[in-house]
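Blackboard transcription, Thursday session:
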Amino acid sequence: MVRLQVFQGERVSSTAVRSAAIPVVAVLLALLVGAAMILALGANPLDGYRALFIGAFGSRSALADSAVRAMPLLLVAVGICVAFRAKVINIGGEGQIIAGAILSTVVALSVGDLPAVLLIPLVLIMGMVGGGIWGAIPGAMKAYLGVNEILSTIMLNIVAVQIMNYLLRDPLIDPKEIEQGTRIPQTERLPETADLPILLEGTRLHLGVVVAVVAAVAGWAFLWRTTIGFRVRAVGHSPHAARYAGMSVPRMTMLALSLSGALCGLAGAALVFGSQSHRLITDGSAAGFTGSAGFNGIVAALFGGLHPLWAIPSSFLFGGLLVGANAMQRAIQIPSALVVALNGLVVVFVIASNRIRDNLRKRVVDG
Amino acid sequence: MTTQPENGPEAETNSGSTSASGTSVANTSVSGALLEMRGITKRFPGVLANDSVSFDVQGGEVHTLLGENGAGKSTLMKILFGMYSADAGEVLLEGRPVDVSSPSAAIEAGIGMIHQHFMLVPTLTVTENVALGLPHGVRPDLDVVRSRVGELSEQYGLAVDPDVYVWQLAVGERQRVEILKALYREIRLLVLDEPTAVLTPQEVDDFFVTLRALADDGRGLIFISHKLHEVMALSDRITVLRDGRVVGSTTPGETDRQELAEMMVGRQVKLASVQRQPADSSGESNPADLDYDARPANDARLVVTALDVAGDRDGVPPAVRGLSLEVAPGEILGVAGVSGNGQRELAEAIAGLRRPLTGSITLDGFELVGASPQRIRRSGLSFVPEERMRDGAIGDFSVSENLMLVDHGEPAHAVRGWLKLGALNKRAVDLVDRYQIKTPDVSTPTSSLSGGNIQKMIMARELSSGPSVLLAAQPTRGVDVGAAEYIHERLLAQRDEGTAVIVISEDLDEVLALADRIMVMFEGRVVGTVHRDRCTVEQLGLMMAGG
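(Written on the board underneath:)
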């Protein structure tokens, strides 16, 4: 399995300066390999990359779009960080996003028109509860039954997708879809008071982006400023020493995966109530409304050194790449899926270079 | 296994059929230095680990390398074994520069190393372990390996069955397999890194006979140990390292333990084990008079009754069987025994980390069996675990984080779940100061501290809560003399303050230096509990062997 490299928690300042070069180099290398791929497809990589960067960061609305696209990545990334600090690998972001989206949607539909000040916090919290439950299940399985969380979270992704498909085809489907016979699997328009407000006039930047940044800061504060966060990290670093110090390893494992799920679930709620259509929609595929944020968030977390605060710029970069990819596709007719390959390349280079640095450091410390 | 192997012609004929090693090894004893390390310098960022160290070993001699942790012994040996490359200096074997750029090159050159932690595959047999890594065709010819292993073990008194699986072997036997591995590879130079930690005093005697036989056949032996009396007993020469430099070389005839300790530390030391020599076997004490059921003078604080604790392996008898003990405030109960006789399981059961099968453990009448580790700690038990780096501290955590590992949730250190980092930091600085923990600052990662300082840090954490019972397992294993001395002082001071202290140790000197009463464990049972002042090392050694 991939050995995930961690930045030294609080000592960001000293390590980060030296470590900062690594992600930059990794991105450059990934772009270089990507350029070769674009060339192989018979297009000009410079034109493509120019279009990509202008599309991602070239204007106010482009920046806003990138931020909106980064929002779920960041929430998932922070969740990955929290889980990882307890040595739990959460691949279940997709399922937890869906679980959060479903629960918040159901609650919004059933409570109806509450004032926004009540309804928005309610749906966001319900998103966290839904995702939290979907994280607690593999958490409990790992903590008390020793079930590998990588397998169980992946499996639960599939379960969540199927539950959503069922709900949107029958119990939750917009009644109009049945009347008109179109049967598109989507809910009716959700209560307007639950819409996440737009923060910048003329852009799509909505409240969810702020929520995500606050969550990142909260994730950092939790891990490095609270007693429970301290225990989560202790368990992650050394379950043996944590046990000897009187901590409950299973409890912390379960807590970390539940919190991780809750952050992904929050992303789910923010995706639904910050969406253009203000409905929960599925296209039947695993990706659907999540845009694979449950997986891309892992990439963002890795790129951010599994540190919640570094996940902020990292998610923004990947959000930008996703937005810019569409612009690139328009400019040079290269499939935007190339960006997925770019993401993968960045991760490969980051992990490889972390490994190299790790080895260097080991030789130094061993003496 | 105690038979002294015959040297010379007979030994050579034994090995002659499979290899020509016998002759060549024997010859080296005649010509000059077998190994010479000249001006070895190794720099790590901020540390000069070896400062132009020169060191040589003659064929046929046991040369001890003595020094505190961090003195540069391991670095020097890692350079010799090809795990580090030296910044300056050269390594010569029989006067010729030799390439030791990797462990395999070192083995090729005839250098063998017995590590503290054995490098064996438990699920393979002895023969298969020896065969591992040997050059071979499609598959190794195990029959050849097996017969050669048999020869070697007979020749050097290294009794072990070549067909038995390594997991079935006792620790002492595993060590023999390691030595057989090295012998099979026809090493001329053998490095032994603290090899006696896992042996009883009697086993050590046999082991030294074997080592002597290996040397007598012309091999050079480098012996690394902290146990000064062993160093005195075994060595032909002793070289002391301190702060990366050679302090001096001497021979057992010219020096004594006190002087060696001072050379290591670089100042006067009070050697507890020298001060409190056990009663001499020729003295008054008569085994028949020995009280094998010595009781504490005061009312007991911690009482263990008829305790059975399971070990890690299924299908074997429990690791602890029908064990009872009592410890009173203001005394130290030493638990002696060869490693793997249930000490670890006993310690974990008392700390609440391993649930006993039956029996009871009470602290001031409060039943600890079934209570959570946290609850047990709150009722006044502190615990210094045996595996320091695994169980006692978190290497990636800073010193201050490790110091708050146990009590970070106390009201003085946290408000409504938020850590009071300022107060915690201040306390950490204070503890580092009070317990003489050598560290640049409290935010230094613990893994960069020396073993002795990590142990002091653990002691600081465990003692700062003012425990009523202190359980310390192997408190000074692998710790340098200076830190060990300090830790012993602390344990004695804690006893004098009225704490009931249990010290579990495989180091008999340590038990004798600290304990008021000594309990000996063998195969999970108590062989006997004796008063420290009324027993001899020989008696304890017999008890440790189950007698």
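Lecturer's comment: Residues 1-17, 363-367 of chain A have pLDDT under 50 and may be disordered.
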